[in-house]
Structures are given as structure tokens and as C-alpha cells.
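Pilot study result, target chain (69 residues):
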Amino acid sequence: TNISKTGKDNDENHDEDNEPSMSYKPIVHLLPVEVKTGEEDEDILFCERAKLYRFDSSTNEMKERGIGE
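Predicted structure:
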């Protein structure tokens, strides 16, 4: 396949009928599982995204631990 600077395909002989079909079957079949968090009966009063940091005293810098709501 030749691609020009515009990003368009320049190959005149491109045939979509000869493209391989990619279909994969799962190795293990997993059943759906209901996950209980213990927060199902709680009402959200306020929700804000935030980052959690910890201070690493050996390097004297803040390390990001996670992002969440």
C-alpha cells in the first residue's frame, strides 16, 4: 500500500473483497458477574474529579497515586 503525504491511499489495485476476515473466538467463556461495591444504596450529594498524591521523602517530590471521583 502506498500512502501519500495527504494520508490517502494511492494503490489503484486495492480490492476490499480480498481482505482477510478477522474473527476470533474466546479461549474461555466468562459469565456476567454482578459486582457489589457496598455503595448501591447511597445517594450522591457531591461529585468532583480529583488527583491523589503522596510525598516521597527520599526524592523530595510529590508522586501521583491516582485519579478518581
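One observation from the pilot: The beta strands are 50-56, 61-68. A full batch analysis is planned for the follow-on phase.
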